[in-house]
Amino acid sequence: MGMNIQNIKIELIQWLTTLEDKSLIQKIMDLRKNDSRDWWNEISEEEKKSIEIGLSDAEKGNLKPHSEARKIYGKWL
Distance between the two ends of the chain, CA-based, in angstroms? Predict the structure, then answer.
């Protein structure tokens, strides 16, 4: 594919505006709906546990300011 992603999106939008086939439009809507699936079921148990610990810490007020987090994790951002 020689086109960049923005051009492809524009081409798809233009094509979508010409569609009259309701079943095809419904298939596209179904694809869109399925694409926004719940990512929770896609992550590992370790990731889930880490998220749950983070949420628990936040509920308890065990939070660090954004500036401190940037200092710690800045090299990965």
Answer: 30
